[in-house]
Amino acid sequence: MRISVLDIGSNTVRLAVCDVGDGVPLPVHTAKWKLRLSEQVGADGSLGEEATDHLVKALLAACEMSRQWDAPEPLAFATAVVRDAPDRADVLGAVHSRTGLRLRVLPGEAEARLTFLGARRWMGWRSGPLALFDIGGGTLEVAFGRGRTPDFAASLPLGANRLTNEFFGSADPPSPAAMVAMRRKVRHQLRDVSARIRWEHPHTAVATSRTFQQLARLCGAAPGRHGPFVERALRRQDLRRAIEQLSGLTADERAALPGISGPRSRQSLAGAIIGHAAMKLSAVKSLVICPWALREGILLRYLEDGADWWADLEHHDGTRAHRDGMPPGTRRSARLSSTTGGTTRIAATATGNRLRP
């Protein structure tokens, strides 16, 4: 059986075509289109016609490539850059009318839950109670669990690109004051989530996403060409030193460093600040870099729970628990319940407990 998945992120559209044997998705072809949608949004976050046109062209090319590799229509999903756009309905409508794809927009918590599933399968049960951190362009996903799905999952507006635009703007390199202000916001937003991770005391902490992979490479991890089975880790003390290094360089200078790509060099410093704060506040000294993440989590859920699960993921809000990537009958373990005065409160309901501010 062959299947494909299409991921629309803040920087890149990625296609993965996989063969499935014994329920394990094995890649046979991957491709990406560097659209940098996050750099094309308007002042209010709207994508607009030009960015939408670029997206549609990339999706048409991805669908054609999927057919060339004898895969059915891709499981296409978008994350924060489309989810947060005021003109989201127009974007989704244009995609559907011009490509035939019904693009699903995943809620942030669903991202965290599905990414956790991918990481759990890669790491295996010997990893024990597992904490997950994933830095995207628009959001930071955090999850913790002892089983197949997390007991706790949250999505916070702490993406590397989002905070770069908010605090650094066009300054290159940014001022020390801007870095202090960014770190203060990150710590404030992470307060409740990190308290939960500390309380759970995970046996293993993993990091997914290109941001963490590139930071790990900068800090001495093996390059990607050595393959996915090489053990890679990111130590908190090494990441702290990386922040000092990155903070004194321009984006072009960062792009010359090991692991830091040109398209992500501008936001690499923000990613390092977010990652270090998350590790420190959660009392995590080292992260295992996990190659499986959201795309693999979606493929696994599709394979295990069938096409009905995917069809039931609404392309708009997906407010019910099973629409958020949760198994039928599972209660929402954590949600972003309210945001007031810049403070994000996390409500935990799986055990009947509530995290206190």
- Which bin fits the share of residues in helices? 40-55%
Low-pLDDT segments, ≥5 res: 315-357
Strand order of the largest sheet: 8-7-6-9-11-10
**H-E string:** EEEHEHHEHEEEHHEHEHHHHEHHEE
Tell me the β content. Answer: 15-25%
Summarize the entry for a quick read:
This protein is of the alpha/beta class. Helix content is 41%, strand content 21%.
Question: Care to describe what's here?
Answer:
By secondary structure, the protein is an alpha/beta fold. 41% of the residues lie in helices and 21% in strands. It is built from 13 helices and 13 strands. The protein has a 6-stranded mixed beta sheet, with helices on both faces. Strand 1 and strand 2 form a beta hairpin. The longest helix has 25 residues. The chain starts with a strand and ends in a 9-residue tail after the last strand. The C terminus is likely disordered.
Give the helix/strand layout:
Elements: E1 2-8, E2 12-21, E3 24-34, H1 48-68, E4 75-78, H2 80-83, H3 88-99, E5 104-105, H4 108-123, E6 130-135, E7 140-145, E8 152-156, H5 160-168, H6 176-200, E9 204-208, H7 210-218, E10 233-235, H8 236-247, H9 251-254, H10 262-265, H11 268-281, E11 286-289, H12 294-305, H13 307-311, E12 334-340, E13 343-348
Parallel strand pairs: 1-4, 4-5, 6-9, 9-11
Antiparallel strand pairs: 1-2, 2-3, 6-7, 7-8, 10-11, 12-13
Keywords:
disordered C terminus; 41% helix; 13 helices; six-stranded mixed β-sheet; five-stranded mixed β-sheet; single chain; 357 residues; alpha/beta
